[in-house]
Amino acid sequence: MKNAAQLLFLFVHLAFVENIEKSANFQTVVTQANYTQNHKVTLDFNTEHILIYQSTSTINPHNVYVWSDQTFFEHPVFVVIRQQKSITSWQIPMSLERRAGGILEFASTSRILCHNKMDVIAQLPRNERNLSSENFHEEISIAVATSSKLPTSVIIRVDEFEHFFVEELKTYRVGAAASHPRYFYYKFPDPSHENYSSSVVLELTSKDTTCMVVSIQNASCPVEDSLKGIAFKGMFQTVQSKGGVIVKERDYPNGFFIVIIVHGDDSGCNQVSSTIPKASRGISTIYNYTTIVSFQIKPTLSHSSYYIAAFSTLIGLLIIYVVFILSTWGFYKYANLWRKNGGTAPEDITLEGMVPTPRGKL
Fold first, then answer.
1. What range does the record give for the signal peptide (predicted)?
2. 294, 200, 290: which is closest to 241 by C-alpha?
3. DSSP E strands: which ranges in the chain?
4. For each of the chain's 362 residues, which pLDDT tens digit applies?
């Protein structure tokens, strides 16, 4: 019993000493980072990196890319992004469970950050978005850390997402993947606008059969851009090659987000087959599982336009009916008049009597 107590004390003592050594060797490397520039950092369980970006006043949100060229990870790398009002986090490799079983791991990831002033932006009329204002002030810092004892390298890049605002009757093409969700913002125009309609149709097409989900969400932070939580916010539809969603202004008076998320396989669209080859099922690393999506927002007919179209169709049918009645009446009127004047039906014309009489030989 005494020996067991001594061994337990020795184990606790060694663990305490090891933690002290770790704390003594642990360091945080702070870097002043630049937008649109790749920053490669190497870290382990003793090193944490923090990238601080200069504050901006742009109305567009930022897209954060974090990826690694490594194919083996002893432990995942944790990414934590701090903004004034929110914290966004995920890990590399990004794990995605398949409904058919197994796990997909993605070493390349990206997320579009919800703008710190999205509540202010959603209240602005569309014609005032280009006005530069300090009200759009935003600060971003990114921390990456791991518990791996092996050196692990990741690359970080932050870009301004310039195609965030979309308008009706324009076609947009976007690349999306399971580890690269995308979302956009649409706001209904003023009633005086030539393209105004109280409801719109969002049409999506893809040249391949990759299974994806399109979600319509209220224009407020946070944005739900994961497959696990997308069913709990707004409305969504599963799309494989073509889909459409009708959105009404009364449901989203401040506009809405169009969120596009790609499945790791097509189990969400087809329970039988899978776009992942059988040899790759289980734990695998996917670097370029991407689909190209084209979408367009089209205004629907307003109530007045609908009534005008219906009334015009009714008038057209009525005119055809009147013309038919008048034509029928005129035909019978002419036939009766012709009979009263002693007209008879024309005789049949035959070839009898018209055949020439054969002559003798000359």
1. 1-19
2. 294
3. 27-33, 39-43, 47-56, 62-67, 77-82, 87-92, 94-97, 103-106, 108-112, 138-146, 152-160, 171-177, 182-186, 199-206, 212-218, 235-239, 242-248, 256-262, 284-286, 290-299
4. 445 444 433 343 334 334 444 556 889 999 999 999 999 999 999 999 999 999 988 899 999 999 998 877 888 999 999 999 999 999 999 988 776 667 888 899 999 999 999 998 998 888 777 655 556 888 999 999 999 999 999 999 999 999 999 999 999 999 988 899 999 999 999 888 888 888 999 999 988 888 889 999 999 999 999 888 888 888 999 998 899 999 999 999 999 999 999 887 776 776 554 444 444 444 444 433 678 999 999 998 755 555 666 677 888 788 888 887 877 777 777 667 666 665 554 554 454 544 555 555 44
From CA 182, how far away is CA 319, in angstroms rounded? 52
Extract the tokens encoding 332. 């019978």
pTM exceeds 0.85, yes or no: no
- Going 162 to 163 to 165 to 170, the CA torsion angle's sign is positive
Which amino acid is residue 201, in one-letter code? Answer: V
Give the span between the Cα atoms of 241 and 250, in whole angstroms: 29
All structural domains of the chain, each given as residue ranges with its CATH number in brackets, are 25-162 (2.60.120.380), 166-322 (2.60.120.380)
